[in-house]
Queue: 2 jobs
Job 1
Amino acid sequence: MTEKPRNVCTCGSPKLMVYSCSGASNVGQLANDIAINIVESGRGSMGCLVGLGALVSTMVQNAKAANNILVIDGCAVKCGRKTLEHAGLTDFDNVVITDMGVKKTYDLKGDRGRVSDLTNKVIAKIAWVKPLTIRDGSTEEDPGCCGGKV
Ligand code: SF4
């Protein structure tokens, strides 16, 4: 199978697909902020977790085409992980914010001062990341999560 550089999802760099649970808690929102930081650092692109959960076909196809996927969950319920598994994805890495010493609360703006430190910790965990590629057969015309607006 021939591989080629990923260039269809134009919302970020070609290295990694990142999904965040973005849950209704401090840690869920921290997960989202960390995902944004990773994208803004040029390490990858962010995918729509809810789109995967809804089994939107193009989003599932794009996720399955990715070489590397990181799922950031806020807490041990691991909704992000379960969502990817629901969509048929099994080959991904998963980090959980509460495993990094943050206590879950329902203050949506809580612990924002820790975003930078936590981002660095998550990035350290994904230092192995290789360039993300898509395989032949992927829907190159499909803009994926960002709708090709960027
Ligand atoms: S993993 Fe935890 S924080 Fe994230 S959506 Fe699920 S319950 Fe909420």
Job 2
Amino acid sequence: MNHAIRADKFLLDADRTTWHDETLWFVREKRDRAVYAVPEFQELRELASQIKDHTLSRLDLYLQEFEAAAQANGVHVHWAADAAEHNAIILDLIRQQGATRIVKSKSMLTEECHLNPYLIQHGIEVVDTDLGERIIQFREEAPSHIVLPAIHLKKEDVGDTFHLHLGTEKGESDPQLLTEAARQHLRAKFLAGQVAISGVNFAVAETGGVVVCTNEGNADLGVNLAAVHIACMGIEKLIPRLTDLGVFTRLLARSATGQPVTTYTSHFTKPAAGKEMHIVIVDNGRTQQLGRPDFRASLKCIRCGACMNTCPVYRRSGGHSYDFTVPGPIGAILSPNIDMKKHRSLPFASTLCGSCTDVCPVKIDIHTQLYKWRQVLGEAGEIPASKKWSMKFMGRLLASARVYGLSGQFARQALRLLPHGLTHAASFNAWAVARELPEPPKQSFREWYQQQPKSVPQPQTPQVTV
Ligand code: SF4
């Protein structure tokens, strides 16, 4: 099933689509206000972009520096080539502790590796402690946004879910009451957690420490209560020095939600006395993307979600329509690298308007990369035959002024004479499914232009009398 078909399902509920669109646009506007309040924001973007470019160009060296510094801090470092290795390492660590109960803060990497189902299948209780993540975990859904995982749900949906799983009153949808119910429920899970798993926003090569940004403080609570902390990070999370961190923390929250900074920016550098800390460093296709010069800049992503909030296609098709852990414009660049065949429709889920590129805090040329993926997919034969042949046909038609003029005449006549049901039939004209075609004009601009007088009147020079 391709993106357009999945988006069609989302669009069936017109009210929800409009609400989703407006809610994310509200976040985008908040981002704009936060950005305009920082006069040096563009300089920060440029600096962040250069730091990430530099780090990616020496990633092997920085990874080794990070590993050595982390080990010197008493942290165990593990390397995973892919999702299967990542999951096996974590299960092994949990079993070594004899643990059966895990608390986990938000980590898109563990979503990417499908860690939850893997651990549950092996008899481990996994509790997502981020509120949005817990809601979708109850509903057995995937996150639809990387920062706002349950943004596709209304408060009434959350009320129904909590009634089912937490026993709140039927029909209760007051956000304050629902949040309090989740708080009480999660507090017990935090206290029972034996191992805490967290994601990583930034890993500092110089110190060997990792930085986790949350708004709920759930990562801190989980890590401080459990005997073991396992932090999972992709290889691209590195920054060279601790002094670089401020550049990114100033950009991240402003771009994500319009906040000046995330509520909690927590540094985990070494295990507390009597406890263990592990870091699992994961590749899972990232070195392959690093080896693609046209797409390596996508590894600069700091997962702020701004490109999703601004994207007109994402806002009106919903995160689940991408069927990939990271949806939206950046997901449409990352996903074909993982599985070109499965995700071949995603680079086409864009108007190429460039709004994603404009808001990206690390200056990734997102829309250019989307356009490049289309070419790569074309060359790899991963474009549907109907699209390939229609593009060839259009190429011929647009290459000849005469053929173009004749086809325009034909189309105007056809639109005038054919019945509405035929010109707007879904199988024949998908564009017109949700739109009315304009009245065909009597003549084209070209025909009108040819009828105009050929001589162009010269501007008159004003007479000057001295
Ligand atoms: S590509 Fe840029 S805008 Fe999109 S999530 Fe990543 S950092 Fe944010």
